[in-house]
Hints:
Layout: H1 11-17, E1 23-24, H2 27-35, E2 40-45, H3 57-68, E3 72-77, H4 99-113, E4 125-128, H5 130-133, H6 138-144, H7 151-155, H8 158-166, H9 170-173, H10 175-190, E5 192-198, H11 202-216, E6 221-225, E7 238-239, E8 242-243, H12 253-261, H13 268-275, H14 280-287, H15 294-310, H16 312-326, E9 355-358, H17 360-364, H18 369-375, H19 382-390, E10 394-396, E11 399-400, E12 417-422, E13 426-432
Parallel strand pairs: 2-3, 2-5, 3-4, 5-6, 9-13
Antiparallel strand pairs: 1-6, 7-8, 10-11, 10-12, 12-13
Helix pairs in contact: 1-3, 10-11, 12-15, 12-16, 13-14, 13-15, 15-16, 18-19
This protein binds one RNA strand through β7, α15, α16 and α19.
Amino acid sequence: MTTPSTPAVNALDILRDRGFLYQNTNEEGMRQRLSGGPATFYVGFDPTGNSLHVGHLLPVMAMRWLQHCGHKPIALVGGGTAMIGDPSGKTEARPIMSVDIIDDNARAIQGQLGRFLDFAPGKATMVNNADWLRDLRLIDFLRDIGSLFSVPRMLSAESVRMRLETGISFLEFSYPLLQSFDFYYLCKERQCQFQFGGQDQWGNIVAGVELTRRLLGQEVFGATFPLLLKSDGTKFGKTAGGAVWLDTARTSVFDYYQFWRNVDDADVTKLLGFFTTLPMDEVRRLGSLSAPAINRAKEILGYEATALAHGHDEAIKAFLAAAREFGFADPDGQIETSSRIREADCTSASEDIPTVEISAADLTAGLGILALLVKAGLCASNSDARRLIKGGGCYLDDDRVGDEKLVISPEHFHAGIVTLRAGKKARKRIKLV
RNA sequence: GGUAGGGUACCGAAGUGGUCAACCGGGGCAGACUGUAAAUCUGCUAGCUAUGCUUUCAGUGGUUCGAAUCCACUCCCUACCA
Length: 433
């Protein structure tokens, strides 16, 4: 993580310049407060899974910038509210989760956030709203908090209106009260004056700002991040096997790098701004590269994003492994960049394509191509592998496999290694041991 | 509690006794063209020891030579009424 060197720029200007800001309860007020010394802010995370994926990263990067500017992040896991399920942006109620699972998930998420934020004492903190929400007493809550919410107003919220047709229970309807209470509580107990969240959180955030003002007589601020879509309007962050995870057990570093390497041309500038820490003038320059040179910008995006999540060394390995397979976009370093990707030695010969080992005994037993595809994790089932071969998408090194009954033999290996490909991009190195 | 309408593959949505592993759209995968891009065109999209077999249309049981389709009960959702 870069060392926060005395930043003279207002955090808000950085966020705005890089495209992080969408809606804001009071931008001027927020700017003034942020330039008036360290401030505390919070962002909520939903502990319904045990790993973050790239769809969660936008708020994380924003938090990183704010921390970089000297402000203090609170990452709130909604252990209490997850027991309810936020109706925002959902067409139906979500399954309610058990406390144990939520706690496990919260731990895993904090571990991942730690790669982006500094959780050292006095720096970022992690809180679980279950700690205060489960102690609420119904009568007190209804009287003190419930009395401040107007039902007609709540009903007019977009998130509620879209559920009016399909149904919404009182449980979910109450969600904004609890999230608002979080903000109030964090302001009172921890002097937290800012809440950030996704676009779909706007209603909840505004409600929290108002509740806090009414209960504490203090102005607090809220802002939302834009909804990240690809240039073709589809959801960002999903790919072949679903989401792109930060957990290397679910998405390998190589695949993580490849995800960024393969984004649309049109999204490069935007993504460099969000998911790297390169200066914006460089971002704009790289993003406007044309024709094949744009590929260098994608390599840089891939390296930078991967380095943040998995470290410099891993990112370089992924970059080299991929570039060796597909070609280097700028082998001679013609395109100027401040990215540490420059340090990569394009002539070294490490082998970091994900590798699967098979034993000589497997071969002797008669290993078929279908079984190998499944074993390598390139196909979900034998039928899937059959389809791949029928469609002409399976290669052993550079030879297309046309026979689904092909039996793998030692002749397929060169120096004990053969590259198995499923389509152009998915590939595994098969190593004979 | 009453009445009515629903629950189909990753999502949306047809199908209302056989020709249904189930139209179509989205998504995804693969092929061609490319720049590991986009757009476009084409094919595929339950599993298997595979010209056949097995498991799928909320659940359980039943009718039938035969059911996603008919019947009974159960669970869940929605609307109106109370």
